[in-house]
Amino acid sequence: MEWWKDAIIYQIYPRSFQDSNGDGIGDIPGIISRLDHLQELGVGAIWLSPVYKSPNADNGYDISDYREINPEYGTMEDMERLIAEAARRGIRIIMDLVINHTSTDHYWFRRSRDRTSEYADYYYWAHGGPDGALPNNWTGFFGEDCWEFDPERCEYYLHLFAKSQADLNYHNPAVLEEVKDILRFWLDKGVAGFRCDVINILWKDSLDSSKKRLALTGLDHYLSLEGTHEILRQLRAVLDEYNAFTVGETVFVTPQMARDLCGPDRRELDMVFSFQHMECDQYFIKWFKRKFRPKVFFDCLIQWQKELDWNAVYLENHDQPRSIPRFGSRKYWKESGKLLSVLALTLRGTPFLYQGQEIGMMDFDFTRMRQLNDVESKNVERVLRRFHVPRRLRWSLISRTSRDNARTPFQWDGSAKAGFTTGRPWLGVNHNCREINLADQEGDADSIWSWYKDLAALRRERDVLRRGDFTPLEAGRQVFAYRRALGEEQLTVALNFSNRPARADYRGKLVRSNYPRRSFDGTLQPWEAVILE
Ligand code: TEU
Ligand code: CA
Fold this sequence. Notes:
It is a single chain. The protein is an alpha/beta fold. It is about 30% helix and about 20% strand. The chain has 15 helices and 24 strands. The longest helix is centred in the middle third of the chain and has 16 residues, at about 175-190. The two termini are about 30 Å apart. The structure holds 1-O-alpha-D-glucopyranosyl-D-fructose and calcium ion.
């Protein structure tokens, strides 16, 4: 039944995974050609970032047709072949469901411009105030305001993300019916479920102005409201016909909100992506950076482990910088990469790995704004320029936080284009592909890749790693330690998040260490991770 409690789920960002025809853009045939890699890792499901038809203002998170494949990525036949080929390897496909907004190229939106059409109320349309005032004072996720004037309809439409991502209006019941049909369309094709994009902000209770905030003014009018819960319950009824799985991407959720969204008795989502552990190195939003303090991170992880019986566990995705330079160490690249994999695969919950994480890929090595593609980075750069923030400071902020950090092409081998493409890659390949690539790591028993495979196998063998309880033992300035227990079976995990050796008074038979040693003597080497029995 609950296969997702046993599986490791692997996220593919199709544009950057594998190009098959030399146009520099990753595609579905490319993914099919790499399924063996995923099988070797032992993944139970793939979460596919959007492959639908899209003008790509936000790389597919702006959908113009939910029932068509973006021609850059292939055809519907390719997609069906992917589902079948994956199934042959015991791998399920989870689609990205982006239903908070559509592209303004979607025909619903185009027809919505006509007030007399049946699509007139599919989106949030509103009049501006006198003197060109916007309909309200809300601000969007990508650093700009969130209203755009449409000259044809002579009204503004709401867009919490980019200008060409118009928010759907769920006060109109027809919209939800459309979404149900889309779910059925894909479930009939054999997909196992959905990762639901920004799913906790669907319902806007009113379009009134809010008290001004430093960022995201208006949040109180749409964050995890009852209207959203009602929508999720209705979608669940459809999903249940197929026994389908859902994970919600839920911005700004607290543990209480998360329980209300994915508690087993709620019949809404199966689990959520929470953000708090990814926000330990920032003040409220990512543009206000602060130093990463491991203890804050550990305490946050512990809190979430305790407050939810089951949830998604992740350290990377396509919106976040890479985990090694962020939570680990550049100097101890290999050790900290392995340590972070122990964290990702031994906490309680369903682990989600992001492409490239399994070989320790790092942030981009771009030096100029021009090399970036991310719509968010570009918008924020424009805003910073408007506020006369000097160029050096702008770059320092953007280069550390840009989502493109995680979007550079997968490094399959050490050749100039990393085996990703024979053409010109849509986003630059990191020059470190000479040192960090799968081909080299495949031949190396001590590589991050070999370690991931081994750990994934350990997780399959040991029920305690999947189903066991979680008990924190220590969350200090350097060391994070916890116990997983299931009946008689007990494993202790101890992780040293620092460049210095650290005391860790735990005993037991050594099951794994990312250092060569036969037994554990109570001292962790820099970035050492041990699993004891
Ligand atoms: O992300 C939602 C979201 O909140 C992020 O955009 C986040 O605010 C931002 O990355 C932090 O810097 C989802 C998708 O994962 C993202 O790729 C899309 O751009 C966004 O929704 C809009 O669909
Ligand atoms: Ca291609």
